[in-house]
Amino acid sequence: MKSYAKSGRSDHSAAISVAGDQGSGGAGADAVQKIERLGIVSYSNVAPLHWQLEPWPEAEFVSGVPTELNAKLLDGTIDLTLISSIEFLRHRHLLKALPDFSIATLGPVYSVMLFHWRPWRELGGSQIAVTTHSATGTELLRILLETSGIEAGFVPMPPRLDDMLASCEAALLIGDTALVEAVMGREIGGRKPLVTDLGEAWFNLTKLPFTFAVWASRRDTPPSERLVAKLRSAREEGLGHLADVAHKESAKLGLSPAVLQRYLGNFRYYLEPPDRDGLTTYGRMCLPGFAPEEVGFWQM
User: Fold this and answer.
1) Which residues are within 8 A (CB) of 138 and not within 5 positions of it... i.e. 6 or more apart?
2) What does the pLDDT read at residue 234?
3) 229-237: which pairs have CB atoms within 8 A and are 24 or more residues apart?
4) Closest by Cα among 148, 137, 87, 146 to 111
5) Helix or strand or coil: residue 33?
6) pLDDT on residue 133
7) C-alpha angle 123-133-270 in degrees, rounded to nearest 5
């Protein structure tokens, strides 16, 4: 298994090697223009990827949480979205990803968090409430528990920490809700829960980045060159104006702009080789019979 020390993001190289066939039409040169439906995940960590991006006549935007957009991509309701890694890997024969987009971290993620009353290695036999908004985080938690020899039951629940911890020994939250709860560190029922960052736990286990999501489409619906170019341009704008992105998102969450900027600056948005290694390692650990060469990327 490869390991990677923590380092800053390097710029994406056009020469990056991509897996899968080139796929005729992968460049998206459409004979007849069609409306492309783009899924937009409504979490702050995705905001730098679509900063200042607005719909145009050939594009429609559909917002939602990861589980909603995962389902819409799989049933063809939308054409391209940031899909949870576990769903991308489970449906690797149906989907292909853009070669240079990700939501990944090398170490702590700060927004995929387990809140628990006992040390997490003592949760054997417990019931753990897991948010209905996440598939990748839930599977990551299962891997971390199993590799530590811990057996626990999962109870899907809406992402409300008070309710989750009132009925279960631990609770998994993701996204903005997890970030806000972790930063606030508030008491629940008169006491503060312990908190474990699953991105950090993954790094401690594998010494690899964890890739939480990738931009993907169905193999029979390649994205157009124009759409991909606009996404790349929006990402450059977002990362080039990260303070502005953080200021806007902090107002929504009730957190300081400085906290949001540190949070957003921690992500790896370019799906570099280490992030791919983390993605395929995750696939091998959670999917029987998984083979990395089955994962496809558009040559764009």
Assistant:
1) 130, 131, 154, 172
2) 97
3) 230/53, 230/56, 230/59, 231/49, 231/50, 231/53, 231/98, 231/101, 232/100, 234/49, 234/50, 234/51, 234/52, 234/53, 235/48, 235/49, 235/51, 235/101, 235/269, 237/51, 237/52
4) 137
5) coil
6) 81
7) 100
Among residues 187, 99, 145, 118, the alpha carbon closest in space to that of 285 is found at 145
Q: Which amino acid, residue 170?
A: A
List of domains in the chain: 36-106+208-294 (3.40.190.10), 112-206 (3.40.190.10)
pLDDT along the chain (300 residues), means of 10: 49 31 40 82 94 93 90 95 95 97 98 96 96 89 96 96 97 96 95 97 98 97 96 97 97 97 98 98 96 95
| Lookup: tokens for 139 | 């599977």
- Quote the crossing angle between the two packed helices 242-253 and 257-265, to the nearest 10°: 120
Distance CA 205, CA 52 (A): 37
**Cα 59-104-285 angle, rounded to 5 deg:** 115
Q: What is the rounded distance in angstroms from the CA atom of residue 56 to the CA atom of residue 58?
A: 6
* pTM of the predicted protein model: 0.87
What CA–CA distance (Å, rounded) separates 184 from 254? Answer: 10
CB 196 within 8 A of CB 113: yes
Strand ranges inside the chain, DSSP E: 36-41, 59-64, 80-84, 95-97, 103-105, 112-116, 127-131, 153-157, 170-174, 194-197, 210-218
Q: Rounded to whole angstroms, how far apart are CA atoms 114 and 218? A: 32
**3-state SS record for 201-249:** HHHHHHCCCEEEEEEEEECCCCCCHHHHHHHHHHHHHHHHCHHHHHHHH
